[in-house]
Amino acid sequence: MIETEAESRREWMLQQFNFEGFKLQRIKKYKFWKDDNHAIELTTKMIERRVVYSKQNPVKALIVDLAEDYVYSSARDYSGRTGLVQISFLS
């Protein structure tokens, strides 16, 4: 995929990945991730808090009065309106 995917910054990105991979002997050529990124377990409640938080960002930035007024927010769809981004409802 790395050899065939069209990307305007391809050469620069390959240089960066190669540089990171060069630092470790176990890496053969490219390294795509950072070592300090540690996975954490998210509970349903934690995910819900993050979703609510992200939907409130346009409100806190004073772009809109209500989260569902932001055209790029799924909050529109959950309020019965249609947003610009097509979403799939999860049950």
Please describe what this structure looks like:
- This protein has helices at residues 10-22, 44-60, 75-78.
- The radius of gyration is 20 Å and the shape is elongated.
- The two termini are 34 Å apart.
- The chain folds into two domains: 1-37, no CATH class; 39-91, no CATH class.
- The chain contains three helices and no strands.
State which percent range the strand residues make up.
under 5%
**Shape, per Cα inertia axes:** elongated
How many strand segments?
A: 0
Helix tally equals 3
Task: Indicate the low-confidence ranges by residue numbers.
Answer: none
Helix coverage percent of residues?
A: 25-40%
The sequence of SSEs as H and E is: HHH
Structural class estimated from helices and strands: mainly alpha
Largest sheet properties: none
Radius of gyration: 20 Å
Write the layout of secondary structure elements.
Blueprint: H1 10-22, H2 44-60, H3 75-78
InterPro entries: Transposase_17_sf
GO molecular function: DNA binding; transposase activity
Organism: Marivirga sericea
Fill in the keyword field for this structure:
DNA binding, mainly alpha, Transposase, 91 residues, transposase activity, single chain, Transposase_17_sf, elongated
What's a concise summary of this model?
The protein is mostly helical and 91 residues long. Helices cover 37% and strands 0% of the residues. The protein folds into two domains: 1-37, no CATH class; 39-91, no CATH class.
